[in-house]
Amino acid sequence: MVGKHPCPECGANLEWNPKAQSLQCPYCGTLVPWSETQRAELGNAVVEQDLAAALQSPQAGRGWGQQRREVQCQNCRAISVFVDGRTAQRCDFCGSPAIVAHEERNDAITPQSILPFKISDGQIRDAIRKWYGSRWFAPNKLKNAALTDTLKGLYLPYWTFDAHVQAAWQADAGFYYYTTETYRDANGNAQTRQ
């Protein structure tokens, strides 16, 4: 599923529809079911990797499979990866236009699969509006500046490894408890406190 998928009706790029859990054309509305067979053909099953083997051959399984470039935001310092032909852009994390080319140290580990989104754009917008509305002391500028029309999903990479580890650790524990005591105030009345 990594990559672009053309619509069989109009040729536009299909997008993931979380509600239908399938690909859908944003222009003509054509729904293309994403079957288990197609997933298996593309190899999108999660495969457990051996950590020791991965560390012994660090260059194996590297690269995006097509030309990409890294940019770094000068505002939040986040590093993003873009298709090589993309020119005008903003930081995916903070929205700042102050991004510059970033020299990558090593090729990225090749993604094997993607976890698709479960929440639609409309549900996300509603949740953000509800959250803004619940902020009593938030300035009105925050609500007015909310760029809910420019929301877009980000795929964040994760890697899992299984490992057998022996480790020593140490911890301090603190136990807190409260007692109630009775005392007499300046007027001779019985009072309690914790």
UniProtKB/TrEMBL annotation:
It comes from the Bacteria. This is Zinc ribbon domain-containing protein. It comes from Acidovorax cavernicola.
